[in-house]
Amino acid sequence: MAVDTMDGTKLTLGPILFHWDADRKRDFYARIADEAPIDIVYLGEVVCSKRSPFFERHYPEVIDRLERGGKQVVLSTLAEVVLPRERAMTADLCRQTHYPVEVNNTAGLSALAGRAHRIGPMMNIYNERAMAYLARNGATHFALPTELRREAAAVLARAAAGIGVSVEVQVFGRASLALSARCYHARAHHRTKDECQFVCQEDPDGMALRTLDGEDMLAINGIQTLSHSYVNLLAELEEMRALGIDHFRLMPHSVDMVAVATAFSDHVAGRADAAEAADRIAQLGIGAPFSNGFWHGIAGHRFWRAETDLACA
Questions:
Q1: Are 183 and 172 in contact (CB under 8 A)?
Q2: Which residues contact 276 (CB under 8 A, 6 or more apart)?
Q3: CA distance 129 to 287
């Protein structure tokens, strides 16, 4: 099942950021393949190379299932490459030619030079010159960083149209804010990164990081820092399409992602207005506030309600 629009709009599913066990991932992708109105699925370990062996052997089965479900599969590289084996992992993934690659670290660029590839959001492309430079290297598609405001996204969308590449924006899910060489998750449990015992698997949507007053502020996922709030740009989709942004990314979480994808798809296809689709997502019990602040140029964790012109905390 894909998004049935005629204007080239694509609904995409980003890579799973969290350390879900292999059975859970297989079940998740099987349901996405069979039930979710998603056009493109990004597959791969992006956050921690130590997790990769748990699921890599299932890639052929998962890819086959997704393709039989009508999804295009794109392989995503690690976002942080610091060890020789991580450089080798990235190079191996980039050398294969069966599937498109989304690069999330510059370590992959040389291996893909001259070949069509995608640039992931963790490459942090903030200006037209960087976009043009990477396009000359072979990049055909750019997923923008989640913290870009709409004015900056509009400039990049115009630049992309001028050089014939496409642009993607994350419209649902916790925003990736930072990566570190150290593992916060292990440290919080008094373990070293090398002896983490994969404690991050205890937090399927990230571990809450609270202020001294006990207020939820961020979420930790291994070496990654995420927003506590869930980005929700459903009401901004039409504006984005008018700017030339035609790929909308949903990030996987424990919530019913088929329901999330269906709500976004129905709105994109005109079967549900923004209010109805937003209400359906609100009924899913996500357990964290929504945010669209980055897009509107206010604090990223806040939610701007256009109908009242109020920025709600």
A1: no
A2: 267
A3: 40
Distances (CA, A) of 9 to 14, 160, 264, 292: 16, 15, 12, 21
Do 88 and 81 touch, CB atoms closer than 8 A? no
**In angstroms, rounded to a whole number, what is the distance separating the alpha carbons of residues 42 and 14?**
5
What's the pTM value of the predicted model, to 2 decimals? 0.94
Tokens of 237: 């989709």
For residues 139 and 145, give the distance between their C-alpha atoms in angstroms, rounded to a whole number: 16
Kindly state the DSSP code that residue 202 receives in the 8-state scheme.
G
Q: What is the DSSP letter of 4?
A: -
Contact 41, 11 (CB under 8 A): no
Query: Rounded to 5 degrees, what are φ and ψ at 102?
Result: -105, 120
Asked whether 151 and 182 are in contact (CB, 8 A), the reply is: no
Residue 113, phi-psi category: left (phi > 0), alpha (psi -120 to 50), beta (remainder): beta
Q: What does the alpha-carbon distance between residue 241 and residue 285 come to, in Å, rounded to a whole number?
A: 28
E strand or H helix at 73: strand 72-76
Name 226's bridge partners.
Answer: 176, 219
Q: Is 232 exposed, middle or buried (0-12, 13-18, 19+ CB in 10 A)?
A: buried
Say how far apart CA 194 and CA 19 lie, in whole Å: 16
Mind listing the pLDDT tens digit for each residue in 156-207? 999 999 999 999 999 999 999 999 999 999 999 999 999 999 999 999 999 9
Q: For the chain, count helices (H), then strands (E).
A: 11, 14
Can you say how many angstroms the Cα of residue 12 is from the centroid of all Cα atoms in its chain? 9
Please, which pLDDT band fits residue 4 given cuts at 50, 70 and 90? low
Distance CA 66, CA 69 (A): 5
